[in-house]
Amino acid sequence: MPEEDLVELKFRLYDGSDIGPIRYSSSSTVAMLKERIISEWPRDKKIVPKVANDVKLISAGKILENSKTIAQCRSPFGEPPADVITMHVVVQPSLTKTKTEKKVEELPKKTACSCSIL
Predict the structure, then answer these.
(1) In angstroms, what CA-CA distances link 31 with 28, 69, 98?
(2) Are residues 74 and 80 in contact, defined by beta-carbon separation less than 8 angstroms?
(3) 13 found inside a domain
(4) Per residue in 47-95, pLDDT tens?
(5) Strand-pair category, 55-59 with 18-25
(6) Which domain holds residue 10?
(7) Is 115 exposed, middle or buried (0-12, 13-18, 19+ CB in 10 A)?
(8) Greatest Cα-to-Cα distance within the chain, rounded to the nearest angstrom
(9) Dihedral sign (CA 35, 37, 38, 39)
(10) What sequence ranges are listed for the domain Ubiquitin-like (predicted)?
């Protein structure tokens, strides 16, 4: 793989620590990056993503789409080739409804009117 096809990335976690820097092919997709982040995630962290959809990658102020490649996500201003690109990682665990949450939603809603006299 030619040297110019490699991009050096590091991922900044919520607490300011980093994963990387690691060199990736510019044809790598965001979904591939997320899988790598999950596999390299420090186990001592309080918040740990379980699947790729739990992770959001932000670069140059934009949330990156899973289907895009690194080359498509590069900032239009461009970075000097020798620099490491920092992407921010946000963990948003997917919401799964628990049984108690379902029961609350299934209860019939009572309409109530309240008046306040000032």
Answers:
(1) 8, 9, 28
(2) no
(3) yes
(4) 888 888 899 999 888 899 999 998 888 766 555 555 788 899 999 876 6
(5) unpaired
(6) 6-91
(7) exposed
(8) 76
(9) positive
(10) 7-73
